[in-house]
Amino acid sequence: MTEQMTSGLELMFAGMAIVFLFLTLLVVLINVMSALVQRYFPEMPKPKIVPGISTDIDKSVIAAITAAVHQYRKKHN
Known about the structure:
The chain is an all-alpha fold. It has one domain. It is built from 2 helices and no strands.
């Protein structure tokens, strides 16, 4: 029975070592791939959007929209 226990423990530790080495290798490879992607394919900066009214919209259109919103709110409140 002692020989079977020894074989079982050896097999358990061998399996645990293989899983540990595989997971360690997986983490290292993922970090290397991440570094390569960030180096050769950097993220493009997003264009800045300035809030506010654009200058190419006609003042009469803005007035019409404002009046429509005001009328809608007055009717539905």
